[in-house]
Amino acid sequence: MARMEISVLASGSGGNAAYLEASPGDGLLVDVGIACKSVKERLATIGRGLDAVRAILVTHDHTDHCKGLPVLLRHAPRAKVYATEATARAVELACGEEIPWHIFDADTRFQTGGFCVKPVRLPHDAAEPLGFVVEANRKRACVLTDFGHAPGSLEASAAACHAMVLEFNHDVLMLKNSGRPADLIRRILSPNGHLSNDDAGEFLERALSRETRRVFLAHLSGECNTRSLALGAARAALARAGRGDVEIVLASQDAPTALFAC
Questions:
Q1: Which tens digits make up the pLDDT trace of 111-146?
Q2: How many domains is the chain partitioned into structurally?
Q3: Strands 17-23 and 80-83, how do they pair?
Q4: In degrees rounded to 5, what are phi and psi of residue 230?
Q5: Average model confidence (pLDDT) across the chain
Q6: Which of 40, 57, 130, 244 has its CA 20 to 30 A from that of 111?
């Protein structure tokens, strides 16, 4: 049976990475925001190795999405690394190293290995932030994190995805009462910041399609969210949509999810 598989290796402000596989030995990473050693260990947990990584997609230049990239490329030299021109330059400034990029246009689909990749523009305070819709073997998954609001175009991008990795970053009340600096709170709550549980739930409800089978709750704040609050918002959204059949998976900062078939 044709399938694509996905595991969120790490998710949160401490570092982000997701692994998708079109076939044995044809895998890709979305972001490398954790150390190469951690990527290797977490891949091993799901029965994979660095030799399976043939491509890396970089969403944006914040270090929790790219800091592990230079070292990982030394251990996975066959992996092609993809970014837009603006993100590539900003990542090199952030990491302090030149990287052998494969540059793509943010508005153009491209092929890498067995994957068709559609970049999706996201509203976030980075050089040229993107999400990705990745398709292989007639299965489709989207990785949409690090955005402050959900324009209508995003719903179309998520449509017909069998699996969704979606940001449930913070609970608004917890954030406002967190004691964090006022400018940081304003940044997170801004249209170019991060998605709250309530906004993520509303987006999930609108973006669901009959193909949706699984949603990963990603990029939860360790200080301004809880697993139960994020789960509650996602469950409420699925209930409103009459989709109790959709499985919810909580992504973690500290351990990979299982490797799920789309």
A1: 999 999 999 999 999 999 999 999 999 999 999 999
A2: 1
A3: unpaired
A4: -65, -45
A5: 96
A6: 40
Q: Cα separation of 211 and 214, whole Å?
A: 9
What 3-state DSSP class applies to 69?
helix
The secondary structure element, H or E, covering residue 32 is none
Cβ-based neighbours of 173, under 8 Å, separated by 6 or more: none
Phi, psi of 184 (to 5 degrees): -70, -40
Tokens of 79: 């992996």
The 3-class SS string of 171-238 reads CHHHHHCCCCCHHHHHHHHCCCCCCEHHHHHHHHHHHCCCCCCEEEEECCCCCCCCHHHHHHHHHHHH
CATH code, domain carrying 160: 3.60.15.10
Rounded to whole angstroms, the Cα distance separating 164 from 156 reads: 13
pLDDT tens-digit readout, 25-67? 999 999 999 999 999 999 999 999 999 999 999 999 999 999 9
DSSP 8-state secondary structure symbol assigned to residue 125: S
